Amino acid sequence: MLFYSMFKTLVGKEIAVELKNDVALTGTLHSIDQYLNIKLLDARVVDAARHPQLVAVSSVFVRGSVVRYVQLPAADVDAELLQDACRKASVKA
Amino acid sequence: MAGLVLPAAASLVDQLDKRVLVILRDGRNLVGVMRSFDQFSNVVLEDAVERRVVIPAKEGVNAVYGDAPLGLYVVRGDSIVLLGEVDDAREASPQHPARMDIRDVLELERAGLAERAVVWDIEES
């Protein structure tokens, strides 16, 4: 649940998502669920020449299972808080 | 009970009754009106078509696409890569591939004059 909670704090921020098939998308994080499925608003495909069909889409739902990386705005992530939360969770477990 | 259950794939509710582009793990593109979904992101597409997008081999020629009609489809969630709401204005923009008859698109592919826009196959990568 840790990363789900972290992503929830990033709603409304600009993020970039790279998928396992090398497609990269940028957009505003609209919502996230417990599978880390991601919904982006006003999404843009990074390499439109390679994936021209994605020019047509505005908001995109990405299935969590196909995500390789998510690039986050560093200023909006409190790494220390995340570390503490991780420790607390592992002590509890 | 309802308070404890997390809203899985809840965000798809905004796409209900909208025309969506679904990209599958095997690289196919489906376009249809999303009528239903569940917590596994299984979706029902009405008037589904397979969108075949090809990039001509000749340099500087824009991509084209053709739609092959399929009908009513239930797409299993685990084969979905992404699902995007089709924006009519963006679909009509010059950056988007131009529409062609599906038979012409298939003929271009057969003749080796054009290549499918992406090899998305996640299983292979």
How would you sum up this structure, described in words?
Chain B: This is U6 snRNA-associated Sm-like protein LSm1. Chain B: Its main location: cytoplasm. Chain B: It is found in: Cytoplasm; Cytoplasm, P-body. Chain B: Residues 7-89 form the Sm domain. Chain B: LSm subunits form a heteromer with a donut shape. The complex is a heterodimer of chains A (93) and B (125). In chain A, a hairpin with a 5-residue loop joins strand 2 (24-32) and strand 3 (38-45). Chain A is α+β, with helices and mostly antiparallel strands and 93 residues long. Chain A has helices at residues 2-9, 79-92; strands at residues 14-19, 24-32, 38-45, 57-62, 67-71. Helices cover 24% and strands 37% of the residues of chain A. Chain A has a five-stranded antiparallel β-sheet with strand order 4-3-2-1-5. Chain A has one domain: SH3 type barrels, CATH 2.30.30. Chain A has two helices and five strands; from the N terminus they run αβββββα. Chain B has 125 residues and is mostly beta strands. Chain B has a single domain (17-116), classed as Roll (SH3 type barrels). Chain B is 11% helix and 42% strand. Chain B has helices spanning 88-92, 102-110, and strands at 19-24, 29-37, 43-56, 64-75, 80-86, 98-99, 114-116. In chain B, strands 1, 2, 3, 4, 5, 6 and 7 form a seven-stranded mixed β-sheet that branches. In chain B, a hairpin with a 4-residue loop joins strand 1 (19-24) and strand 2 (29-37). The longest helix of chain B is centred in the last third of the chain and has 9 residues, at 102-110. The interface between A and B is large, with 31 and 41 residues. Strand 4 of chain A pairs antiparallel with strand 5 (80-86) of chain B, so a sheet runs across the interface.
Poorly predicted regions of chain A: none
Radius of gyration of CA atoms of chain B, rounded to a whole number: 16 Å
Q: By helix and strand content of chain A, what is the structural category? A: alpha+beta
Do you know the CATH topology of chain B? SH3 type barrels
Between the first and last Cα atoms of chain A, what is the distance in angstroms? 13 Å
- Determine Rg of chain A (CA atoms, Å): 15 Å
**If you average the pLDDT of chain B, what whole number results?**
88
**CATH class category label of chain B:** Mainly Beta
Helix and strand succession of chain A? HEEEEEH
- Helical content of chain A, roughly? 10-25%
